[in-house]
Write a structure and sequence with these properties.
Layout lengths: L1 E8 L25 E8 L6 E6 L4 H14 L5 E5 L8 H9 L3 E5 L10 H13 L7 H14 L5 H5 L2 H8 L1
Parallel strand pairs: 4-5
Antiparallel strand pairs: 1-2, 2-3
Helix pairs in contact: 1-2, 3-4
């Protein structure tokens, strides 16, 4: 698994868009700074996402996300690739990890977001849902963001590049 957190704001982020010649697309921009955070972990073998929205990011909420991850995969060990965010290193996380030996953490080198496959999940979901959005209601935007994460598959080419699936086939 590869994990990370992202923040979603009600304010639309703009990106390129096609339109008919002479018809400039209009994107309403809100002055509200309404936001929420999302914890996410990508299963590198299946491309499926475990996601949890949260009003804040701290060690206690991070531990709750790790419990959700453990519940999503109740019968197997989990190796989570993660960055070194301060809330990943707090007391609540350390306690949870010591009580759940089947969850192990491997930290990415600092700072190296380009190595984290979860970053590609955030990018794809922002492009599909939050860039150029015209939703007037933030709750609807957040729901659509979460639904996209849960219902989509995000293939991870890094595993194919390094022969992961061939290696797994040898041991099965």
């Amino acid at each position: 698994m590869a994990g990370d957190e992202a923040s979603l704001y009600h304010q639309a982020t703009l990106m390129r868009a096609w339109s008919a010649v002479g018809q400039t697309p209009l994107i309403k921009v809100t002055t509200q700074r309404t936001m929420t955070h999302f914890y996410g972990a990508l299963n590198l073998a299946t491309g499926k996402e475990v996601v949890m929205p949260s009003a804040k990011m701290n060690s206690e909420v991070t531990a709750l996300f790790l419990l959700k991850l453990l519940a999503a995969y109740p019968d197997q060990p989990i190796l989570l690739l993660w960055d070194r965010a301060k809330w990943h290193l707090g007391a609540a996380v350390k306690t949870l990890l010591s009580d759940n030996q089947r969850l192990q953490i491997l930290f990415f080198p600092p700072p190296s977001p380009e190595l984290n496959p979860q970053e590609h999940v955030w990018k794809a979901t922002r492009e599909a849902i939050s860039h150029n959005h015209t939703l007037p209601n933030f709750a609807t935007l957040a729901d659509e963001f979460e639904n996209h994460l849960e219902s989509s598959t995000f293939p991870c080419s890094i595993l194919h590049q390094h022969g992961y699936f061939s290696l797994c086939a040898m041991f099965n």
